[in-house]
Amino acid sequence: MRRVLAVFAAAALLVPAGAVTAQGQPPPGDGLDQTIDSGQSVATDRKVLSQGHVDVGPRFTDGEWTLMVHDATSDPSVWRHLDRTVFQVSDAGVLPVPDDPAYSFIGLPGTPVHVLPQVQNPDVVWVGWNTQDPEVMATIDGGATLRMSGVDGPGELFVYLQAGNFGAADVLWDSTKDGAQEVWVDVNTHTHANWVFTEPGVYTVRVEVTADLVDGSTVTDSQALRFAVGDATDVEAAFAADVPAPAPGSASAQPAARADEAAGDGGGEGGGPGLLLFAIGAVAVLLLAGVFVVAARGRAAKRAALSARDES
C-alpha cells in the first residue's frame, strides 16, 4: 500500500486551540522550518533519545546512501546511526483512545496507549522525517519512498496524520496490515506525525528509503527504528532486539525493485490515512495555511542545489 506525501508535506500540523497566530501561521518555534547544513557531523556513540526534535531521513555517508536520524537535540545537531539509537517513549506520552468510532481501529475508547504526537510535546521525543540533507536534495530525482516493511513488538503501531480539519484519521503505516506500506516524500520535505503504540515494550520497525537519482541510478537502504515504550522497558533490550524480516515485495526482499513513479491514491499530507486527534488537554485544530508552498519550495531548493553543483 502506497501513500503520497507531497503537496501537504510539512505544512500541516496539529496545534492546541488558541495557539495559531492571527495570520493563521503556527507560533514561532514549531520546529518545522529547519535547514540542515552540509557536512554535519555523524555521531558514532550509542544514544537514547527521550525528548526533543529528531528526524529520520536519508543522507550520503562516505558516498553511501544511508537512512539515519538527524538529532537536533544536540548542539550543534548531528546525524546518528539507527543501529546505535533507541527512541524512548516514556509514560508521559500515555493517552486514552478517544471515544470516537473513527479511532476504533486502535482499541476500545479509554484504552491507554503511548503516543509520540504530531505536535511537539516537550515531555516525549518528537519523531519526524525529512529529505533535507543538501547532497540528497542535489541528487534525488523529485523525492524518495519511505517504506515500512516489518514491525516486531508486543502490540500494534499506527503512524498517521490528519487530512483536514477534524477529518477522518488517515493512517500512513499500520502494523496490523500485511505487506510493505509506502509513503512518497518530496525533496526538501520535513514532516511530523503521530506514532501510537498499543502496548509497552520493545518495538523494532524496519524502514527502507528508496530514491531514483538524477543520474538514472536507484539507491535503497534498510534500517531498523528501535523503540523502548514505557518507563519500565529496558533500553538495552531495545538495542539488542532483532530486526524484523522484510515484508514480501519490499526493497529488502527484492533488492532490484524500483520505487513506483510518484502518483497518487489520496491527496493531502501523506495522501493517506493518518492522525489521531490527540491534543493534550485541549481541542486541536489542523493548520493548513501555506500547504501549496511546500512542494514549490522543495522543487526550487532542488533546482538551486543542482545549479550550484553544476557551477562548481
From TrEMBL:
The keyword Plastid does not apply. It comes from the Bacteria. Residues 246-266 are annotated as: Disordered. Keywords: Membrane, Signal, Transmembrane, Transmembrane helix. InterPro entries: Surface-anchored_actinobac. The chain crosses the membrane at residues 275-296. Residues 246-257 have a biased composition (Low complexity). Residues 1-22 form the signal peptide. This is Putative ABC transporter-associated repeat protein. It comes from Actinophytocola algeriensis. The lineage of its organism: Bacteria, Bacillati, Actinomycetota, Actinomycetes, Pseudonocardiales.
